[in-house]
């Protein structure tokens, strides 16, 4: 394995004033208290494809960056890379981690700085539609993440988020290897839940004990009509703490096509607010409590009514 060279004039200088300070946070005017020992390495996984892993990674990354944390997001879905699209950075991916390991560039050159947040970087493992070299496995990615952690000793990264590929094959095993924590994204349907349950078991076998769930694409009308499982049902079936409940929201698709994470929408969209709340809980090591429907219906609507419908 060639040695990695980490010196970078652009990254080793002190960060200039973050231009994101001009973008108001959708729901919060103060910063959450960071729990745990940074850098925290969090894998966003699911088992089933298409449930919202990349959407969650992009929105949590943007939220954390806007809150002022230094974030590096790794697109570990090598075959179907699209985190760059969701962050609107597709034209700036000149080098990838594979190029670092083949000796074509330094690690800092493969880090793509976000246009809106100086403190948010994206790292793709490989070029679109190109496969990872077979030698790129758990040890390689762990080595890479260790290198990211020490890249800037004066201004170290605080969150490394890893967008995991679907399935439980080699790509999954690689993506979870460096993580200490996992966010398990699921939709409230039985196929996604079965896969999520399997993945939770595999994560635990791998030594990842801190696993929280995000229930995505929830429709309050269907839950009320008992045509969709409620977040409480999902939580009880998986037996894991709940980080967030994200509603089905057409704005997700619009923001994906614009290459701008939904959490940056002004005025805020319901799913954007829910992702921001999840990011806030992630920072603080907090979870939410799903409530039973009868209890939710009894509660007076306060603030964003939709959210008190599902939890507190
Ligand atoms: P994954 O990374 O798990 O394969 P994606 O994040 O790419 O999933 O999402 C799959 C599709 O679902 C995308 O078209 C995305 O826009 C859509 N989607 C994700 N979350 C929501 C949501 N809360 N509301 C509406 N559409 C969503
Ligand atoms: Mg994806």
UniProtKB/TrEMBL annotation:
GO cellular component terms? cytoplasmic side of plasma membrane; cytosol
Q: Where does ATP bind?
A: 48-55
Which GO molecular function terms does the record list? ATP binding; ATP hydrolysis activity
- Coiled-coil regions listed in the entry: none
Q: Name one Pfam family in it.
A: CbiA
Question: Which stretches make up the CobQ/CobB/MinD/ParA nucleotide binding domain?
Answer: 42-262
Which keywords does this Swiss-Prot/TrEMBL entry list?
Answer: ATP-binding, Cell cycle, Cell division, Nucleotide-binding, Septation
Query: Which domain of life does the protein's organism represent?
Result: Eukaryota
One GO biological process this protein is involved in is: cell division
* Sequence similarity: Belongs to the ParA family. MinD subfamily.
Q: Per its database record, what is this protein's job? A: ATPase required for the correct placement of the division site.
Question: What name does this protein carry?
Answer: Putative septum site-determining protein MinD
């Amino acid at each position: 394995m060639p040695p990695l060279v980490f010196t970078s004039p652009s990254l080793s200088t002190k960060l200039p004033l973050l231009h994101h300070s001009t973008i108001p946070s959708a729901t919060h005017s103060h910063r959450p208290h960071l729990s745990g020992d940074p850098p925290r390495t969090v894998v966003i996984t699911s088992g089933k494809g298409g449930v919202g892993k990349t959407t969650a990674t992009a929105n949590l990354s943007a939220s954390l960056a806007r809150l002022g944390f230094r974030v590096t997001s790794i697109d570990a879905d090598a075959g179907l890379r699209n985190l760059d699209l969701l962050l609107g950075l597709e034209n700036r991916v000149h080098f990838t981690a594979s190029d670092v390991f083949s000796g074509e560039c330094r690690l800092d050159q493969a880090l793509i700085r976000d246009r809106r947040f100086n403190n948010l970087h994206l790292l793709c493992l490989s070029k679109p539609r190109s496969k990872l070299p077979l030698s790129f496995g758990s040890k390689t990615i762990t080595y890479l993440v260790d290198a990211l952690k020490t890249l800037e000793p004066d201004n170290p990264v605080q969150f490394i988020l890893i967008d995991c590929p679907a399935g439980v094959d080699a790509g999954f095993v690689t993506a979870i290897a460096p993580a200490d924590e996992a966010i398990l994204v699921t939709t409230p349907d039985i196929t996604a839940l079965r896969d999520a349950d399997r993945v939770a078991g595999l994560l635990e076998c791998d030594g990842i004990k801190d696993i929280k769930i995000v229930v995505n694409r929830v429709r309050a009308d269907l839950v009320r009509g008992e045509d969709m499982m409620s977040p409480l049902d999902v939580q009880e079936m998986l037996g894991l703490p709940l980080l967030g409940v994200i509603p089905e929201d057409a704005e997700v698709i619009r923001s994906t096509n614009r290459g701008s994470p939904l959490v940056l929408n002004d005025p805020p969209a319901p799913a954007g607010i829910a992702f921001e709340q999840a990011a806030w809980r992630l920072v603080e090591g907090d979870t939410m409590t799903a409530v039973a429907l009868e209890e939710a219906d009894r509660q007076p609507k306060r603030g964003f009514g939709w959210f008190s419908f599902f939890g507190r």
